[in-house]
Amino acid sequence: MRLLALPFESAILKKAAEIILKEHKDLSHIAVIFPTQRSKVYFQQFLAEISGREAMLLPRLYEVSEFLQEATISPYPGFLLNQWQRNLFLKEAIFQVRQDISKLFGNQLGPWEEDFLEFVTTGQRLLRFYDEILRERISFEALKKEALYTDYETHVEILANIFEHYAKLLKENRFIDPVLKETALLLDEDFLQTFKAIYFIGVITMTRTETTFFKGINTYAPLTVFFQANKKEGLISHQKVILNRWGKSEKEVHWLENNTTFNPPPSWTIRAFPQVTMQMGLILSAITQALNDGIKPHQIGIVLPDEEFKYLLLSYLSEHNLNLTMGLDIKHTLSYGFLERFFELFSSETEYGFYYQPFLGILSHPIIKTLFREEVKQWQEIVLKNNLLYVKKEILPKNRLFSFLNKIKRKLTQKTFGAFCKNLIQVLEEFHGYPELNALLEHYREIRGLNKILEALQELSTLEKLGVKIAKQPKFSHFFRFILKHLETLTYPLPARLTQAIQAMGILETRNMQFDVVIIPDMNEGLFPASSEKDLFLNTALRKRLGLPTYKDREGLYGYYFSRLTGGANRIYLSYVNDPKQGVRSRFIEKWVFEEIKKGRDLGKIEEEIKAYHHYLPFIMPQKDIQIPIKVSVRKDKNTLAYLETLKFSPSALLSYQCCPYQFYLKYVLQIPTPLEIKEWLTPQDIGQLLHITLKEVYTTWQPWEMSEEEFYHLLMRVLTEKLQQIPQFIHQPASRLGIEILKERFRFFVRQEYQDFQSGWRPQPQWLETEIEMKFKLGKRMVSLKGIPDRVDKKERFFRVIDYKTGYAPGPKQCEPGPEFKGIQLPFYLWLLNHKYGIPFQACEVLGIYDLKTEFKIKEPYKTFKHNPSIYMSEFKLWLEDTLARLFDTSKTWEKKPSPECDYCPYKSMCER
C-alpha cells in the first residue's frame, strides 16, 4: 500500500492524473476511486488535457460505495433492495417483534400500520443507525454491553430484536440488504484480479468496513491512497485514524511537491449584508472581476451552505453559464405542481363541496389555465363575487374542465398502489399529447423533471410485489400523499458544463475540487457549519465509548473542507447575513478576524470594512434610488367634468375625495373595482351589514315598541339567526359562530337601550330606514346631484334624531367638525338631504347620533357644535360642502395623492406608485 499526500495548494485530481499517466501506458486495467461522483468527471478532463490524446482507453472510475458493491458478493442469494424496499421490510419486522416497543416508539404503531408514509421518517432514521453500526463493525452484543445500566439499555434490546427479525425476513424472502452485503466483506476475487493497480484519490474519513476492505484488496492489486492536508500541520485526526487501522504511521506517508507554479497568499473579501438576496451583489462583483482578469468560468466555484440559494443564483445568472451540481427540485416543476394542486383539491372535499382555496389554486395552475382559459376565468369570478367558501359539487357544470378533473380522479381511484402509480404515469404522459401545452412542458427543464418523476413512479410501482402493503386500507389520499412526499425530496440534473460554466455546489461536493476563486454566501452558524442532527438512539457518551463519530467529529470535518477549499484558492469571497434571525456569523469568519488582529490590524476598521456592503448594490439594483413623486399630476379635462356632472355624490364619495383625490379618481372616475377577496371569517363589515338588514326587517315588519323587552329580544334573535344561515363564513367556520353567540348575548344591552327609548316616545320611521334620498344642489351655475342612505331616522313628537350604526371605526369629536380633518360626514349630510327634500328643520333634529354596536351598545353624540347650535353647525357644513364640490370640479386642481397612515389599508394600494 502506497500512501501519498499533497498540500492544500496543490490540485489533487490533476496531480493524481499526472502520476497515473506516468506509471501506466494502458489505463484500461486501472481502477480509480473517488469520494464523490463529481470528481470522476473532472478527473477525465485532466487525463485528456495532460495526455493530449484525442482518444484513449479510460481507467474504470468509481465512487466509493459503487466500488464496494462491485467488489463484494452477498453471503446468500437474492435480489438487492432499494431504500424504499428496505423501509417496507423494516416496518414489517417491527410488527413481528413480540415485545413492548412502545418505550421506543410511543403510540406511533397505529398510524404506521394505517399508512406506510407515516413510518418512513422513523424508518430512515432506524436504517441510518443500523447502517452506521454495521459499517463501524459494532456487534449488537457490544452495543448491549455498553448500554447496560444506562437509560438506553431497553432501547438497545428492542433495536437488536428488530434487526434480527429484519435480517431473517430478508433471508426467508431471498432479498439482499446492500449494507449487509457490503459489511459481510466477502470479496469478489474475480473482479479484483482484473485490475493491475487501484488508486483512491482524496481520502478524508472512512468507516471500519471501508478501512478493512481497502486493506484487504491491497493483496489483489497494489493500492495507492492520496491524502490532502495542510503540510505544516500534517494529516487531520480522521486521516490518522485510517492510518492507525491500517497499521501504518504518518511517517510512511510521502508528501508530494506542490504542482502549481506560483502561489501568492490569497486575497480575502468578507462582507455582511442585511438581507440574504443582497449577497448576490458580492457574488456578481466577484465573478465580473475574475472574468475581466482572464480567469476561466470553471475556475470559479460558488459553495452553497443552503441549497435554496441556487434559485437566487438562477435569477441573476443564466443556467447556461452555471453548472448546478445539486440539480433542481422536482417540487418546482409544473408536473409536480399540478399533482399537488389536484391532491389538495380532492383532499378538501367535504359534505359542503370543495374548499375555495384549493379550488382557486388548481384554477390558477398554468396547465389548467392553458387548457381551459374561459372556464377558469368564469369560475374565478363566480367564487370571488359570491364569497363561496365551499363550491358545491351540484353547481359545477358538466363542462370540459370538471370532466377532465373527474376523469383523472376516477383513473387514480385504484385498489392497489401499483395500479395507482401506473395510471398516474399515464396521466402525466398524456399532458405531453396536448398541443396547447407544448410551450409549457417542452422546455428541457420540464422534460428532465418529468422523466425523473416517471422514473420514481416506475420504481415505486413495484413495492407491493414484495408482498408488503403500503397501507392497511387502500385509499386514494394515502397513495397520493405518499407519492407527493417522496417526489418533493427529489432533484433532477441540469446539463453539466465543466469547461464553460461557473461551478455551484454544496460543501460535500467540493471534496477533491480546487478553484482559483471561491465564493461562499450564507456563512452563518447553523449553515456553515450546518447544525448537527441529533445523534440517533444513543447519546454522545455512549457513541464515544463505542468508537462512533459524534456531532463534534462531523463539525470538525467542516473545518477541514473549509481549509482545503480556501487553501488552494487565489481569491476568497465570504458573506453572511447580519440579522439576528439568521444567527451569528460563522466561527470561520471569527477565526479570520482573530488572525487579522494578530497581524496588527485594528478591530474597528476590520468590522467597518466587513459591513461596508453598499459598494456591491449596483450589481443588483440601480445606483441611485429613483424617487417617485408622491403627487401625480392627473389633470381634469372637459370630458372629466362632463362625467362628474352625471355622478350622484354620496358621503362615501366625498370622504374619499377628502382623504385622497387620487383614490376618488380611481374609484369613481375610472370606476376601477376594488380587488375581490374571499372572506373566510365574519369581519366587522359583515356583522355591520348583517345587523343593518336585520334591524331594517324588524322595524319595517313589526312594531317592537308594542312588545315586551323579552319578546323584542327573541324576535331580534330569530331574524338575526335566519340571516346568518345565508352567510358562508358563519356556516363553515365554527369560530365565527362563537363570535356570533357572544354578540347575541351583548345584544341584550342594545334591546334594553332601545326599549328605554321606546318608552320615552322615540319611534323609528320606516319610510327612511335604509332608503335612498336624492336632491339637487346648486353650485354656482352648476347643478350637482347628492344622494344618501340614512341607516335610521327616529321621531318623537315634533323632534327627530338621525342615527348611523357603527360596528367598527367611529369618528371622534374633532373629526366631526367641518374642516381639513372632517370624517364624520354622513350624519350632517343625511340631515341636509332630509331638510331639503322633506323640510325637516335643523333645529327639530335633537340628535346626530352614532349607535355603537361593537362594545357599549348605546348612542353617542360626538357632534358637539351641532348639539350646542344646530343652525351654526349646518351653516359651516354647507360651506364645507360647497368648498369640497368646488375643488372637485376645479380643473386647476389635479387628482393628487395625499400620503397618510391610512394608505396601508387603501384597497388601491397596489395600483398606487407611492
Describe the structure.
This is PD-(D/E)XK endonuclease-like domain-containing protein. Residues 649-913 form the PD-(D/E)XK endonuclease-like domain. InterPro entries: P-loop_NTPase, PDDEXK-like_dom_sf, PDDEXK_AddAB-type, Restrct_endonuc-II-like. It comes from Desulfofervidus auxilii. It holds the Pfam family PDDEXK_1. Helix content is 47%, strand content 13%. The chain is α/β, with parallel strands linked by helices and 914 residues long. The protein folds into 6 domains: 2-73 and 186-255, Rossmann fold (3-Layer(aba) Sandwich); 79-173; 267-310 and 518-619, Rossmann fold; 330-492; 685-762, no CATH class; 766-892, no CATH class. It has a 6-stranded parallel beta sheet with strand order 3-2-8-9-1-10. Strand 26 (799-806), helix 36 (826-838) and strand 27 (845-852) form a beta-alpha-beta unit. The longest helix has 26 residues, at 734-759. The relative contact order is 0.08. The model is unreliable at 623-632 (pLDDT under 50).
